[in-house]
Amino acid sequence: MKKRKYKIMMLACLMPAVCLLLSGCQNNDNSTSRKVSAVSEVPKRISGGVQNKYLLNLGEVRELDVAEEEVISFQCNKPEVVSVSEAGVMHALKQGAAKVTIKVSDGQKVKKKVYSIKVKKRGMVYPSFSMMKGEHLDLQFSLPDVDAMWESKNPAIAEVSAKGKVIARKKGSTRLIAETDDGKKYRCDLDVTKRLDSVIYLTFDDGPNRYSTTKVLDILKKNHVKATFFELKPAVKDFDLTKRVLEEGHTLALHGYQHKYEIVYRSQKIYHDNLDKLRNLFFQKFGVWCTVSRFPGGSSNTRSRYNPGIMTKLTGKIHGWGYHYFDWNVDSGDAGGARTAKDTYQNFKNGILKGRSNVVLMHDYYKNDKTIDALDKMIQYGKKQGFTFLPITASTDEIHHGVNN
Length: 405
Ligand code: ZN
Prior knowledge:
The protein is an alpha/beta fold. It has 9 helices and 24 strands. It has helices at 11-28, 32-41, 212-222, 239-247, 261-264, 268-286, 310-317, 341-351, 369-384; strands at 45-46, 50-51, 53-58, 60-63, 70-76, 82-84, 89-92, 96-105, 110-123, 128-132, 136-138, 148-152, 158-160, 165-168, 172-180, 185-193, 199-205, 228-232, 251-256, 292-293, 324-325, 330-331, 357-363, 388-389. Residues 205-206, 255, 259, 296 line the site of zinc ion.
């Protein structure tokens, strides 16, 4: 738990918020028996008339409303869901429920009070984040039409524009804080790490499927390597594969709800919907807000030429829609020239370069033994050569091809 103290009490704002929250909590209670007895139980307050239930958006910060007694300590049973500072400031880190136990003294006795905290899935997407020196991040909300004003507690470590564009300046930790037009406060706890100059980002397109995804994941797990999966809409029976990708710490990224060139590049709107639809599905199913994407065929594709200029338009618009896009600078050839696992391995070996970021294109399609049988060797080779394997994140420097349409 961080020890920083905040002076964000605004008593004038607190009372309406308290009333709103109490009614919000009641509405969430669907049990009939509770509703019958609710009249005597609600408003559920502890001595001193203090609110003891909170509903926070993801990334939100709020001060616990504690009565005048002297507080000895705050303890949260799930610090991964909500952290509580020594000053009683909560920070919502993950969707879920938690209990905060507060020990207070009235001068004679020590008493315990338990507060219930719920964190919603929606809010500010990056309650805590790590980025390398020199990287950029755009702070995003998974809520519509949020107007936030951002500032950095330590601009020497990371600068942030009022609109939430972050630049990591030097190694260290800082906090980025925002107030939104609806009076809520949000925070991103940011770690800036040193810049690594020889990095390999392994990327797998077109998954998931039961044959390849499990094998790729097993190899990555064995080698303690995290990668990036640019997925299509999974078959319903394969949602568990996407879940496994996330649980094992890889980046889930968007290739599109569907892949058909003759459909997805018909118009800007169709392409935009093809991304939004998959992002919304993943958010609904898994609670992750995906912003990293890859165009089917890459941004340099010529398959879209039936719609002249579409790639120029899409690459110009996509960041404004809240997405990042990644092409590649190393092609394993597993969807093209490579015939065997040996070819794929050679393409990898010849393609990776020291002193830069290497984004390696591979495929997670059914029966792709050319990659599955080469992957372990690729990782061993890369490690031996001193490369670091990392997953792509929202702040990774984008690798772009030249656009041909
Ligand atoms: Zn593809």
